[in-house]
């Protein structure tokens, strides 16, 4: 993980505003998941509003459902996995 998730703000219409330790911030729209499979509990918006940062920096709901901070970072930044997980190259002076 490159940057830590440091703040979560639940907004209306299943949007979550995320802030990361490197200053990146933005909204993630999770509305497409509502009512499907493990996301069925989100049909009750109060359950969705209980989003928080978990013990390992993940976005969690009641310890039952979580999103990896790396995937959220890629969503907010628009980076592909190939770019996000690219190993730094050695630079010589």
What does this structure look like?
- A hairpin with a 4-residue loop joins strand 1 and strand 2.
- The protein is elongated and about 50 Å long.
- The model has no long low-confidence stretch (mean pLDDT 90).
- It has helices at 45-48, 69-77, 81-84, and strands at residues 5-10, 15-20, 25-29, 52-53, 59-61, 65-67.
- It starts with a strand and ends in a 9-residue tail after the last helix.
- The protein is of the alpha+beta class and 93 residues long.
- The protein has a single domain, classed as NE0471-like N-terminal domain (NE0471 N-terminal domain-like), CATH 3.30.2020.10.
- It has three helices and six strands.
- Class based on secondary structure composition and strand pairing: alpha+beta
CATH topology: NE0471 N-terminal domain-like
Helical stretch tally: 3
- CATH-defined superfamily: NE0471-like N-terminal domain
Unreliable residue stretches: none
Q: Name the strands of the widest sheet in spatial order.
A: 1-2-3
Order of SSEs: EEEHEEEHH
**If you compute it from the alpha carbons, what radius of gyration comes out, rounded to the nearest whole angstrom?**
15 Å
SS elements, strand count:
6
Mean pLDDT comes to 90
Major sheet size, sense and barrel closure? 3 strands, antiparallel
What's the overall geometry? Answer: elongated
CATH class: Alpha Beta
How many domains make up the 3D coordinates?
1
The CATH architecture classification is 2-Layer Sandwich
End-to-end distance, in Å?
27 Å
